[in-house]
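Field reference: sequence -> structure
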Amino acid sequence: MSVEAPNLNLGAVKSDFLNLVIERGHYYQASDLEGLDKAALECQKGGKPLTAYIGFDCTAPSLHVGSLTQIMLLRRFQQTGGTPIALMGSGTTRIGDPSDKNEARPILTLEKIAQNKAGIQKVFDNYIDFSKAKMVDNIEWLENVSWLEMLATIGRHFTVNKMIALDIVKRRLDQELPITFLEFNYMLLQAYDFLELSRRYDCNLQMGGSDQWGNIIQGVELCRRVDGREVFALTQPLLMNAAGQKMGKSVSGAIWLDKDLLPVFDFWQYWRNVDDADVGKLLRLLTELPIEEVKRLESLQGAEINDAKIILANEITKLLHGEEDANLANAAASNQFGGDGDGAGLPEITISTSEFNSIAGLFVIAGLCESNGEAKRLAKGNGIKIDDKSVADVSQNLDNETINGGSVKLSLGKKRHIKVNFK
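Structure field:
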């Protein structure tokens, strides 16, 4: 099976889909680029439909920004005439994809998986038109297939040789770290997903991150061996920053896509504060600005690059949370960083004065610090502010006059702020 190199001549493909994927930085690898290009071009011209899926396991209450490139890839696929499938992985979540960590993922209860799925599904309506797309769950077929049937009809097409050659499995084995039999079977189930989607929905393309290449290729091979059907694989680079680290987390935790877990202001600020070197790539991947405008923005130098970052934050936030929330976050930032901001538009919480007995405790409850000790340490470096005034002694409590004012603005450094209302 041919595998195309990541660095591809843009003029080598003819379909709108692949041209867009390459131009916007989504392309990394394909199983049969020429065949996929022909299928996409035929679909584009109104011929045989092209249907593609990406799977999302329900391991957390929301996706984080690392998944945005995958969601955008489904969106671009639909925009160029394809039919996308967002596959919820309630079934595979019960097994757990072997991660790059040194231990297996924790086993989640069925109730927790269902809760996570509900949280994850909310994001997709902002990106995908489901009147012309599908959202399905692999539990539909995985809970009904018997163990004997899986072994006899599917398992016989997999070799242990290939399974242990996968990077994650190989690394665990080389370092004499455990990998459970449960995890070892994950690739079999993912391949079976492709087979079922091929049969049920005429799905002929699986897409995903570059770290999923081995699993995706197993599905391509399974469809060929069991049903004699030629299907395709396409992967994109993982979302990495200029320092070579995966994007999706900050010092304070994951950058969730659900605004109930991460205020819109904090989401907006994450993009406003990315490294200068990442601006162009992120504008390509995660916005729909014309490519010429992207080139103009990424060429800005010095202080002007901040204008590009504001546009980046606005465009990404607008797609996920809507134009109104994006404008509010932008206004809140302008208010704050323009000096003498009153906190309008900042994320807000309401707490009782009985819930804390020190300023440090207040910052912990507000989620700006993890502990009283961290608050004390940051205060020594003038990193703790209340209503834009530095606080040196966070062991003391707020005075009655401040509390009776009804609300305060808490600031941690220059980038994190929250308005606290007292009840």
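Note: The radius of gyration is 24 Å.
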